[in-house]
TrEMBL record, chain A:
Originating species: Cyprinus carpio (Common carp)
Protein name: Fibroblast growth factor (acidic) intracellular binding protein a
Domain of life: Eukaryota
Matches recorded under PANTHER family: ACIDIC FIBROBLAST GROWTH FACTOR INTRACELLULAR BINDING PROTEIN, ACIDIC FIBROBLAST GROWTH FACTOR INTRACELLULAR-BINDING PROTEIN
UniProt-listed InterPro entries: FIBP
GO cellular component: nucleus
One Pfam family this sequence matches: FIBP
Signal sequence range: none
GO molecular function list: fibroblast growth factor binding
Automatic annotation (TrEMBL), chain B:
CDD domains in the cross-refs: C2_KIAA0528-like
A GO cellular-component term linked to this record: cytoplasmic vesicle membrane
Database matches in PANTHER family: C2 DOMAIN-CONTAINING PROTEIN 5
Organism of derivation: Cyprinus carpio
Domain C2: 1-109
Record protein name field: C2 domain-containing protein 5
Pfam family, one: YbjQ_3
Comp. bias intervals (Low complexity): 295-310
Length: 360, 993
């Protein structure tokens, strides 16, 4: 004796948020039922396990039927098969495209290729996120990447319009796409302490300041305007080398900064001793960015060349802020230094990235 | 040649990829009507083609317009091989033929393929130019309006109710033709879909002709069914009630007419008596018969019968007439007399129309199917139904009734055996449609006395009761006799006095039967039927008593036949009618009270039952005003005899026990536990789990006791198929079947838990035995939320009861004024609605502030119709809470077949059916939206035939749905107006009346 067939179809499609989340998390029907039983929904509604199983299967089926629509969220609004209120549609899309920070940290900056997808079971074991959910998240990244790759115009706006995502989520996806496109290294051990949100913040800084779209040089509708760094700018960055190659300039710079900071920080001595090394580190990063390979190492370089030495000297965030502010501003007072615009554009991003990244 | 059909193909979207190489499609469209076909250009390489075609014009006969659907086929152009079909759209153009319905069909319609399901959408425009020759127009049955709704549609007024219309057409089933062996499944499915479309059109046209002949202009309660008889053919049959309807016109004067918005008797009443003076009410149908003009339309014999049988003996028998005169002084209505079958498919009536209800009646017959040799003369099927209708008619007569209301017909087919069933409620109807002024007022006076109980008064002769029934004087008016229980197939009359809330009551039964062939099989089934029906009845009675209720409404008994078993499912809504006596408890009696443990067993059981009854009474708020009885102290001429009330069954008890086994002071209903059946019954009684908190359920339109609906509604269909083990006993089967239904209900409650507090209305169960060892249960219903705070009935009623106890039930009158679907009250603040209520109470009977306010909403809303976009509401009810239906756009009657040979890939049987049902909903919604509507009311899924062959990875399903497409407007934005005007209008309406 068995139930051979069991379906429920509402004129307005009924979707339980909790079950949806379980489905998204890649739970099997049976596991989902267990979770629901533990959640106490049975007592609440005088239901039996049988009822719960039937409901869960039914909901899972509905989600599976909806899934192909969710791949093109715009379709969800003008399809006829499911009558779903707009607020529900938004919820479905938002949750479908939501991702786990621990998962995204694993694939951030990696090529969204089949090879990476094959490694997802390792990611699954490592993060404790089900393989099914990993695959969904990975496919989402890839899908968004592919779509915006072919679109012109501002990245975040494209993602928001094409996938009907809320602003914050669209920004996160922009970061993922940006990282995947530039293949930034994020997986090294030294970078493990950084969260996805740290990287996303930095990506936002880079997109807004270092890309073609950032300076408004383009006629606003260029391909990849937000995805690729401004080559011309990277070229110009080489000119900053003068700050470390010209001995006079370097000493002058140092004394300006030290004069400004004396007495204002507890780590002054370390700062003074380390100034040349730190400055060399930052300027060298700038000078090398013209090489794609060095772009990839941007974050690891920042950590190795700047953040780690400061951390070992026990700088506080306030020290860091103070130092970077004066370091940036002092350069403008230097007599022979002419590259003010490039310096501002470079240091603005470096400063906010470092400040964001400077934590335990 | 009265019509020009015009169609324009605008665009397509979401088309499937038909060319793998390019991932695109070269689509074009064929538009076909009758034998004429037009084609659009090929729109190359696009999944969203923009054809923007010219207007394709078809010049056609009105007969074809009614019979044929417009067929739109989307194809993929292929230069070298045959063009591939993407899918089809059938458009029923009937709604365009009626001047009062839709004027254009325009919108995105799903492109449907019987193998692949929905494959994109197509945007079309369809119009019909009918020649403006009224006479010719009248001669076809174009323009006769059809409604699935089983009451007078809300924006119409019934000028006259003519009576029963029926018709059936038969054909060979394409699935069983020789050609089916060589054609593809798709071709076969499409042939079937198209044939059924044609047959439905033809049937509707023929029914329309009968309506015109009777002088009517509409069919209400139109019920069309298919009998898939397999080898022997395909029968499409329909019944309905012919009416003359008048649209409540749009200008303000009649807009104030509350008929459509409020079913309350006080408001509605004038609509039938006074406000239709222009209509010739005195003599016969308003339109003269023109039978001779129809001769070309092959008058089926069923309506040639009509004329010959005008002198039906029914109302002429002295007994009936005498009885009628005695009780209500109204002669049987003449228009019923003219009918051979005084049957009405309506389940709700204009107030005052339904005078008395006799009780439920049903007739069944078992037939052996044979091939229909000549489709043009479906005599056999006609004769079968005629037999059954005659039986129903004679039952009604025996109950002293001249009419049958809530009438319906159904079949169950297994191989070559077919059970035909008909059921209805014997009733006495008012003839007020035919009366002149003075008499009319007299009637009204008579009804004011007993608005809420009149229908309960027995129509049959007290001294000549056709079955043993216990009669008492009516608990409301104390003037007429009422039975102890009342079973009916109709909806609860809105004016009925009800105590507490109602609930769904189901009796479920499964009986094994031996496998047999032909005649022997039919005989076996016929001999089982009476037992099945008897037991269902007993179960219903027990469950009714267990809930402390005394009446059933909307009773629907479905008997389904399979090769090795018979299934019976009876569903109804139990209520406590204030007019009827309080039901006794259930007394368990053992025949051999020798054993002590046995006696203990009995007494624990008894206690359980008594507890359940008490719990139920509390749950359903059944606290009949027993006190009132004493305080009013109205003289009861004849002391009610309460000592000899033990019957096991109303129809079959010969033995009348003299034992006094009363439960409390009430009459008891004895269950003798000795035979196994009774044990089973008791188990069945006690295993029915109560509905979870916050839920109510009924299978009728109206749930007594719940009034302030919110606008949240959720229509749904749920289907379950259960596989049985072989070799089950009757009891095992019973339990499985009962559990299946119970679990299904539980699942529904769980699914809909977010809508609490809510009521599942119009719960319609359909059972079938698709093959041996399979039971299929399908449910369609609507869940409606209501506001928990019910200042109207709960707090108020109980609080005030003590104060006005001695008066003449003013509170009951109020509950009559505020029927459940006046949900706009929920939008008022509690205190405000209370004030409103009190003002009504003071002006009582005739005045109500509500209709005026609502009519204003009607006026100012008129411009706003299509602004709510794609959302289409669906409901099996005839109304939408919190909204007003302003236009009926036509009937939706759709038939789809879906087949797959990749069952596993589509998610198994559940995945397959889930998708299909969702697709059917989508297509209904799209067609309604294309007609300009935003809701389907009176929706029902009349057929869901599912067949599977998992070994071959195949499944097939046929679904037939119907309903009325409507435009509704929300009432919410007008609450301020209605509040402002409330006091003023109270006085005005007082003055006018």
């Amino acid at each position: 004796m068995s139930v051979e067939l069991d379906v429920f179809v509402g004129n307005t499609t009924i979707m339980d948020k909790e079950v949806y989340q379980l489905w998204l998390n890649g739970y099997t029907v049976n596991d989902a039922v267990k979770v629901r039983i533990e959640g106490g929904v049975m007592e609440e509604c005088e239901a039996s396990a049988e009822v719960l199983l039937s409901d869960t299967m039914d909901q899972y089926r509905t989600f599976q039927m909806c899934e192909r629509l969710l791949h093109h969220p715009a379709k969800l609004a003008n399809q006829l098969l499911f009558q779903i209120p707009p607020d529900r549609q938004a919820m479905l899309i938002e949750r479908y495209y939501a991702f786990d920070d621990s998962f995204v940290r694993e694939v951030l900056g990696k090529k969204l290729s089949k090879g990476t997808k094959k490694d997802l079971d390792d990611v699954s074991t490592k993060t404790g996120i089900t393989l099914k959910s990993c695959r969904r998240q990975f496919d989402n990244f890839k899908r968004v990447f592919k779509v915006v790759e072919e679109l012109k115009g501002p990245l975040v706006e494209n993602i928001r319009q094409h996938f009907l995502l809320p602003d914050q989520l669209a920004r996160d996806y922009a970061a993922i796409v940006f990282f995947a496109n530039n293949r930034f290294e994020t997986g090294k051990k030294k970078l493990q302490y950084l969260t996805f949100q740290d990287f996303a913040f930095c990506a936002g800084q880079l997109i807004n300041n270092w890309t073609l779209g950032a300076v408004g040089k383009t006629n606003n509708m260029m391909e990849d305007m937000d995805v690729d760094l401004d080559k011309e700018f990277l070229q110009d960055l080489k000119d900053l080398k003068i700050l470390i190659t010209d001995k006079d300039l370097l000493d002058q710079h140092k004394s300006l900064v030290c004069n400004a900071l004396r007495g204002k920080t507890n780590v002054f001595n370390e700062m003074e001793a380390n100034f040349k090394n730190l400055s060399r580190g930052l300027v060298n990063i700038a000078a090398k960015l013209i090489n794609a390979k060095d772009v990839r190492d941007f974050f690891i370089d920042l950590v190795e060349k700047f953040i780690e030495p400061c951390r070992s000297d026990k700088w506080t965030s306030i020290d860091m802020n103070l130092y970077l502010t004066h370091y940036t501003n002092s350069a403008h007072i230097l007599d022979t230094f002419k590259h003010h615009a490039v310096w501002t554009r470079y240091m603005g991003v470096i400063k906010s990235c470092i400040l964001r990244m400077y934590h335990d | 040649m009265p019509g020009k059909l015009k169609a324009k193909i605008v665009a397509g979207r979401h088309l499937p990829v038909m060319d793998r190489a390019s991932d695109l499609t070269d689509a074009f469209v064929e538009v076909k009507f009758g034998n004429t076909t037009f084609k659009t250009d090929v729109y190359p390489k696009s999944l969203n083609p923009q054809w923007n075609s010219e207007w394709f014009k078809f010049e056609v006969d009105d007969e074809d317009l009614q019979d044929e659907p417009l067929q739109i086929t989307v194809l993929d152009h292929d230069t070298y091989s045959a063009n591939d079909a993407i899918g089809k759209v059938y458009i029923d153009i009937d709604p365009l033929l009626c001047s009062e319905a839709a004027t254009v069909i325009s919108g995105w319609l799903p492109i449907y393929d019987t193998i692949h399901g929905i494959r994109g959408e197509i945007n079309v425009l369809v119009k019909v130019d009918l020649f403006n020759d009224l006479n010719r127009f009248r001669q076809s049955s174009c323009g006769v309006k059809f409604f699935c709704t089983t009451s007078i549609p809300r924006c119409y007024r019934a000028v006259m109710v003519h009576g029963f219309v029926e018709e059936l057409v038969v054909n060979e089933d394409p699935e069983y033709q020789w050609i089916d062996r060589i054609r593809t499944p798709r071709a076969s499915n499409e042939a079937r879909q198209r044939l059924i479309f044609l047959m439905s059109g033809e049937l509707q046209r023929k029914i329309g002709l009968k309506v015109l002949e009777m002088g009517g202009n509409a069919v209400v309660g139109y019920l069309q069914c298919f009998d898939l008889e397999g080898e022997s053919g395909l029968v499409v049959r329909a019944i309905g009630t012919a009416c003359t309807l008048e649209k409540i016109s749009t200008f303000p004067a009649t807009a104030t007419h509350p008929n459509n918005s409020s079913p309350s008797k006080d408001m509605k009443e004038p609509g039938f008596g006074e406000e239709a003076p222009g209509v010739p009410l005195s003599s016969g149908p308003p339109t003269p018969l023109r039978a001779q003009t129809f001769s070309s339309f092959s008058p089926s014999k069923s309506y040639s019968r009509q004329s010959s049988s005008s002198d039906t003996e029914l109302s002429l028998t002295p007994k009936t007439v005498g009885h009628l005169c005695h009780f209500c002084m109204i002669p049987p209505s003449p228009f019923c007399v003219f009918q051979e079958y005084p049957f009405f498919t309506l389940t709700a009536f204009p107030p005052g129309f339904l005078l008395h209800v006799g009780g439920v009646e049903s007739a069944r017959s078992v037939k052996l199917l044979d091939r229909i040799h000549n489709p043009d003369e479906p005599e056999t099927r006609d004769a079968w139904w005629e037999e059954i209708r005659q039986e129903i008619k004679s039952h009604a007569k025996a109950l002293g009734c001249h009419a049958v209301v809530g009438y319906s017909e159904s079949t169950s087919i297994c191989e070559e055996v077919c059970i035909l069933s008909a059921s209805g409620t014997a009733a006495v109807l008012s003839s007020r449609f035919m009366q002149d002024g003075p008499l009319d007022t007299e009637h009204r006076f008579e009804e004011v006395v007993s608005p809420g109980c009149g229908f309960c008064h027995i129509p049959y002769d007290e001294l000549n009761i056709p079955f043993p029934a216990q009669l008492t004087y009516c608990y409301c008016c104390r003037r007429y006799k009422v039975p102890d229980v009342l079973f009916t197939t109709i909806d609860l009359p809105t004016e009925a006095n009800v105590t507490g809330k109602g609930c769904l009551i189901q009796a479920r039964l499964c009986r094994t039967k031996k496998k047999a062939q032909g005649e022997g099989n039919a005989t076996a089934i016929s001999s089982l039927l009476p037992f099945l029906e008897y037991e269902l009845h007993t179960q219903l009675m027990n469950k009714l008593k267990l809930r402390g209720m005394n009446a059933l409404f909307g009773l629907r008994i479905q008997i389904s036949v399979g090769e090795t078993m018979l299934l019976g499912l009876a569903s109804a809504t139990g209520v406590y009618l204030t007019a009827l006596p309080s039901p006794g408890g259930i007394q368990i009696a053992g025949k051999t009270p020798s054993d002590i443990t046995y006696e203990q067993h009995i007494s624990t059981m008894q206690k359980k039952i008594n507890d359940t009854i008490d719990k139920n009474k509390e749950l359903y708020e059944i606290n009949p005003p027993e006190v009132v009885e004493e305080i009013i102290g109205s003289p009861i001429p004849e002391p009610r005899q309460r000592s000899r009330l033990f019957r096991s069954h109303s129809e079959s008890s010969d033995e009348v026990s003299e034992l006094d086994l009363s439960h409390g002071k009430k009459d008891a209903f004895v269950l003798e536990i000795d035979d196994t059946d009774a044990v089973e019954d008791i188990h069945a009684l006690l295993t029915d789990s109560p509905t979870p908190a916050g839920f109510y359920s009924c299978n009728t339109e109206i749930m007594p006791g719940i009034q302030n609906w919110t606008s949240a509604i959720q229509m749904f269909t749920s289907v379950r198929v259960f596989r049985l083990n072989a070799n089950l006993t009757n009891q095992g089967l019973n339990k499985i079947f009962s559990d299946l239904c119970e679990n299904l209900l539980k699942s529904l409650y769980f699914k809909l838990r977010s809508m609490v507090p809510c009521c599942l209305c119009h719960l319609n169960f359909t059972v079938a035995i698709p093959e041996d060892e399979l039971i299929q249960v399908a449910v369609t219903a609507v869940a409606m939320s209501f506001d928990k705070e019910q200042p109207l009935e709960n707090g108020k009623q109980s609080g005030e009861k003590t104060l006005i106890k001695g008066k003449h039930r003013p509170l009951k009158a109020m509950s009559g004024i505020f029927p459940p679907h006046l949900s706009f009250l929920s939008s008022l603040s509690p205190s405000l609605s209370l004030a409103l209520l009190l003002s009504t109470a003071s002006s009582l009977e005739k005045a109500s502030p509500l209709p005026e306010g609502r009519s204003r909403s009607l006026r100012s809303n008129r411009s706003y119709s299509g602004s709510s976009v794609a959302v289409v509401k669906m409901t099996p009810l005839s109304f939408i809470p919190g909204a007003k239906i302003i236009k009926y756009l036509g009937i939706i009657n759709m038939f789809f077949i879906r087949e797959t040979s990749s069952l596993r890939e589509e998610g198994g049987v559940s995945g397959f059916l889930h998708t299909f049902i969702a697709e059917v909903f989508a297509m209904v919604r799209a067609h309604v939206a294309a007609l300009g509507g935003n809701a389907v009311v009176s929706y029902s899924m009349k057929e869901c035939v599912f067949m599977e062959n998992p070994n071959k990875n195949q499944a097939q399903c046929l679904i037939n749905v119907s309903g009325d497409a409507v435009i509704f407007v929300r009432e919410s934005e007008l609450e301020s107006t209605s509040v402002q005007t409330q006091s003023a209008t109270t006085h005005t309406s007082n003055a006018t009346l």
